[in-house]
Structure formats: structure tokens, C-alpha cells
Amino acid sequence: MSKILIVMSAASTWVRTDGSSYPTGYWAEELAAPHEKFVEAGYSVDFASPGGVLQPLDRHSADPEVAGANCAEYVAHAEKALREFGPLLTLSEVDIDDYVAVVLPGGHGPVVDLYQDSDLGRLLARADAARKLIGAVCHGPAALLSAVDEEGKWLFAGREMTAFTDEEEQLFGTADGAPWLLASRLREQGAKHVGGPAYQAFTTRDRNLFTGQNPASSAPMAEAMIAALR
Predict the structure, then answer these.
(1) How far is Cα 48 from Cα 87, in angstroms, rounded to an integer?
(2) Rounded to an integer, what distance in angstroms lies between the CA atom of residue 219 and that of residue 215?
(3) What sequence ranges are listed for the domain DJ-1/PfpI (predicted)?
(4) pLDDT digit string, tens, across residues 197-217
(5) pLDDT of residue 6
(6) Distances (CA, A) of 78 to 90, 95, 189
(7) Does the global pTM surpass 0.90?
(8) Of 117, 128, 119, 134, nearest to 6 (Cα)?
(9) Which residues of 150-229 form beta strands (DSSP E)?
(10) Which of 6, 46, 119, 183 has its CA 20 to 30 A from that of 89?
């Protein structure tokens, strides 16, 4: 059975420019929807993070007023999947050759740790060189920033991608005080960032790179990856 790797952040807080800490964690839909799609398609799914740390749930993703009426189903699926998998794999020990694809879900965690994680950077560089599929959704594309060459050049510069937009960050209420905004940073680093309407499903594909703009894009991104794998 072919395997998919989901790489989670290990961050539980996001330090703001005023020094305050904003609680964060994995976003249930962004983990659960792809996991469900991959398992239904016959793939097994592993979970990994820096240090093998299990990130907490972002409680906003369990709030129907924020995450929609179906959020309880996503929370239940994500918690069950993580519980049944057991201890997460340590990112530094993962062999990307064991997987056909790697997926990077969001929550704000990736802008805290994954964007500068050297172990992830090496893993993504190897995955991209081997033309394995790489998927990233919402704040997950921040993790792509970790992939740089020996001279510090970003390996995904020039690639088309989407991510949680600056507009969406403003609407969510977390733009003011953010150390940096994801879509702006991706453009600054050379990405061809594109976006759709706020909080509506929107995905892109550039060769082996698949990206989704927001939680609603999680399932469509996974479906596009499954179609490509087939």
C-alpha cells in the first residue's frame, strides 16, 4: 500500500509583535479532510512533526461559528486518526523515499516553526527533486519556505501557489500584530501567489506542487493530488 506523509507543526502558541502569545494548533478540517480522502482512495497515512510532538487542536476549528456546521465531524475524525496512529514520527528521522506524497496542513503553527525547520527543508528538497507530490493548505505553504539550497535560495521561488490570503488574515482578526503575513511573505520570496474569494475553496497546481487557500480547499486539494497519483 502506498503511503502519504502528513507533516504537522509542533507549535502551540504564536508570539505576536506585542509579545503576547496567541494559542494555536492544527486546524481540524485541514488535517481530517485530506486524511479521509487519502484513506478512502486506498493510501495509508503517517503523521510526523518536529520532535514527534503532537500539536494540540486549534479550538477555533471546533467552533461552528468560525469553522462551519460540520466542524465537529472534522474534529472527531482528526482526533481518531491521530489516536489510532499513535506517537508521531520524528521529522528528522523520516525517509521521504517511503512516501509518494507529503502534505502540509495549516493552523498558524507553520508560521511559527515549520517555515524555518531545516529537517523539513531537506525532506521537501528531496521530495521535489524526486517529483513526489507536495500539498500544502491554508498556512501550510509557510512550511515550503524551509526548502532552501546551500546559498539560501528558496527552491520554490517562481512556482505558482496559493495560501491563506492577507485579506483572510484580516477578516479572521489575526493580521494586526502578526510578525509577518503569509501571502505577502511568499510573494516577497519569489512565489507566484494567486488567490480566490475569501474563505471559498481555491486550489492551484504547478507541476508536482498542489496548494489550497483555506480550510475549504483541503478536500479539493487532496482530490487533485489523488487524481494525479492515479
Answers:
(1) 9
(2) 8
(3) 30-226
(4) 999 999 999 999 999 999 999
(5) 98
(6) 19, 24, 32
(7) yes
(8) 134
(9) 160-161, 192-193, 203-206, 209-212
(10) 183
